Amino acid sequence: MNVFPEQPSLIKLDACLGSRDAAAITILLEALHLPYTLSLFTPHPFPPVHHAYFTDILPDGSRVDLNDVLEIASYLIDRYEQERRLVSYKPGTEEDFEVWRWVRLWSEEPLPAAPADQADVVRRMLHRYLLLEQRLQNQRSGGYLVGKKCTMADILYFPAIAAAESLGLDLEMFPELTAWFNRLWGLGAVRRGMEAVRLAIS
C-alpha cells in the first residue's frame, strides 16, 4: 500500500537555532524520508517563542499548521507512516503502548531551553539518565527504548541526552545509555536531523 499522497505535499519548518524540539522533528522527517524546507531563526529571550513552526501544504491546497512537537510527531506518523514500518509500531500493540508511555514520560518533565536554575536541570537530567539506563539494561536484545528499531521515543530523548557534556555530565558513567547514544548517532537520519538545526554533539 502506498502511504504517500499521489502528489507530494510541501512541508515547511521554521525552527529555533539549536532547538532540541526542532531537532526531534527534523530527525523524524529524515527517518520518514520526507522532503522539507527548513528556515532557522535566532532565539530571542523575550517574549518567549515557540521552538518550531510546522506547516504541511497538502496537494489539494489545504494546510496543516502545528507548533507542538508531540502534535507534529503524531501528525507525521499518522499521515506518512500508516504501515508503521520505520519509526513506529501498529496501534494497539504492546510495543506501540510502550513507545507512547515513554513519550508521555518525556512530555511530563520538559527541560527548559534557558533554565534559570542550572543545578535543578542537572538533577532532572541525572534522573532521566538513570531511568533510561535502567530501561536499556532490560532491553539488551533490542538496543532501543522499545524493541529493535529507533522510534519516536528514542528520537525525543536523543537531543537532550546529546547535551550531557554542556551540563557537566559524563555520559560514560551510563554504559547502556552511551551504547544507545552511539547507536543512534550512527543512524544517518539522526545525524542529518541534528546537523540541520545546528545542534552540537557534546
From TrEMBL:
SUPFAM superfamilies: GST C-terminal domain-like (SSF47616)
Gene3D superfamilies in the record: 1.20.1050.10
Domain GST C-terminal: 80-202
Pfam families for the chain: GST_C
PANTHER family in the record: GLUTATHIONE S-TRANSFERASE GSTA (PTHR44051:SF8), GLUTATHIONE S-TRANSFERASE-RELATED (PTHR44051)
Name of this chain's protein: GST C-terminal domain-containing protein
Taxonomic lineage: Eukaryota, Fungi, Dikarya, Ascomycota, Pezizomycotina
